[in-house]
Amino acid sequence: DVLITVDMNAVQESVNMATNEWELARLAVENAVFAREEGERVMKEKLAQSERNLARLQEDMDDYVKIFAPAQIKRSEWDLKKAEYNVEYRKENLKQLERMYKEDNITEENEEIILFRTRNELAESEVALEAARRTHDFNITRRFPREKADKELALENTRRAHQDMVKKLELEQR
126 and 87 in contact (C-beta within 8 Å)? Predict the structure, then answer.
């Protein structure tokens, strides 16, 4: 007597399905391991780039504070001083010409032409001096402080992004 009959086709089909599911699970695990390794590699590359960017920005900020900002301020002050010297020179030149012409017998027409040109040069120098003062004041009160603030902000943002990336990498490695 037959107590149990087994449909071997159904058993074989179940074994095949289980084998296929096991193979799919194995491939999914391999894929997950590969994705994690690839993600870690990419994150490490991004972290290295972030560290380079942070170091470069810090170096740029140090250079700006130690070298470029003082040089810009010095140049702005020199431009202002040069404009002041130019006005002083032109005033003195005009004064000397006027004094010389009072004592000399140069024709009045020549005197007037030279004095006219010298007065125009003096007026031009005074306008240039005023422009140099405005530029200097703007540079000292706005431009240079803004440049420094922009560099500080860029450095802080890069530092924060770098710290976030480090935290993310640490969390992913757990």
Answer: yes
